[in-house]
Amino acid sequence: MEEKYHVIEGRYIDSVLLMQISREIEKMQGVSKASCMVATAENISFLEMAGFHPPSGVSGNSVIIAVEAESSKKCEDAINNAINLIDTGMVQHKTSYTLDDLPDLISTDDFPVVFISTPGEYAYDVADKSLDSGANVHIFSSNVRIEQELRLKTKGASKGLFVMGPDCGTSIIHGKGLGFSNALEATGDIGIIGSSGTGIQELSVLMDRNGLGVSYAIGVGSNDLKESINGIMSKQALNFLKERCSAIAVVCKKPDPSVERALLESMGNIPSVFISLGSDKQYSSGNTYVTGNIDDAVSHLMSKIGKGRKIQQEAFPKMKEPGKDRKLLRGFFVGGSLCYQAQAILHGKGVHVFSNAPADEQYRVEKDFDNLNVCIDTGAEEYVAGKPHPMIDPVSRNSFLVRESSRNDVRVILFDIILGYGSAEDPVAGLDKMKNGPVLVASICGTEKDSQGYQSIRKRLEDKGVVVFRSAARAAEYAASIMR
Length: 484
Fold this sequence. Notes:
Layout: E1 2-8, H1 15-26, E2 31-38, H2 41-49, E3 63-69, H3 72-89, H4 102-105, E4 113-116, H5 120-132, E5 136-139, H6 146-159, E6 163-164, E7 170-173, E8 176-179, E9 190-194, H7 197-209, E10 214-219, H8 232-242, E11 247-253, H9 257-266, E12 272-277, E13 282-285, E14 288-291, H10 294-305, E15 328-333, H11 336-348, E16 374-377, H12 381-384, H13 395-405, E17 410-418, E18 439-445, H14 454-463, E19 467-469, H15 472-483
Parallel strand pairs: 4-5, 5-6, 9-10, 9-11, 11-12, 12-14, 15-16, 15-17, 17-18, 18-19
Antiparallel strand pairs: 1-3, 2-3, 7-8, 13-14
């Protein structure tokens, strides 16, 4: 194999677009791996973790293209294709604006949002200037320092503006999705507050499927409900939504107990649910129902505001015994939130699973999990270093499914499929060689209006022998039943 690198000096390109370009050139014949990134020190280390050997001394204000291919010519072709996509293909805009133009673009009744997906070290300055210009910010970027996040959210709150993120994958404003989101059909006025991107997606899709329309989902980022941030944006979002919505749902992972209490005390009389993924709690606090299960939360909202309708759960199909020697459960998720939820469900059913993102720290495991029951978040940094997230490029996650399906000791393989804006157009790419010795169980988070097509993806999976469910919770429950 040959490696080649190309550096574009003094050029900034959106990180999401660079991920898409990486995916395109990696599809080229003869290319084994490829990556286009802003050349920050952190991204250079990611390239090295991915097995590349990038040149030293590259400026952080540059874009680096790294390619490994079967020949030097294949590397050069891939690099030229990436440059072409940067210059003339994927990165074309009809109108260009700068942050200095923001005040002139904002009208009185607008909900202006600046979407930021720069490398984390650059996000603060862009967000700070956007707030000064009167815009809310959606910070898709991760790895923003916690003290910077606190300063941004304190400033945003003082101005009545939202700082969604950092590490905010999904938001919905006036029914329109930002980041990873789905094409929802139902209209309504339910509000969501979420520190969990795929949690917001799963919740909004299940609501939509049951006729409950979402008007707002304020993504607050993964740190907001921790003690260090003290729920600044979650509390502001709650006050905002209480004035505009008929019901409210909060979905999060491992909230700080004091922040959770403060939010529950502030809910008031509005019908609401508080979903703490990875938790086995189920109780009512005033007019708020607390649970760790998204399906359970939707069922509760249906009982309160669903006009007598009930959520329809899919029945478990009967499966043949996979074999007494097959004892292991292997879960591989692109949605970290759904990985969390699955762990709690499995533990509750007596199936103890280890994870790189454990709901309970005693079950933490790194990459050496050969003989364990596991639920692995394949979107975690140790798996995406130097590569697109598996929601954008599913082949890396799907290769785990193919590999594990060939084993003789695996009883159940559990996985999720996420459709919608930002997700791969073919989320089942690379699954052609998946074998059905183990019981294959999947959930699909998506709607018929999503470009990938819910029914089309479902049929392709079922044709491969996969048992498919409409919800991740139901899939985990079925996987647990097979393990017993």
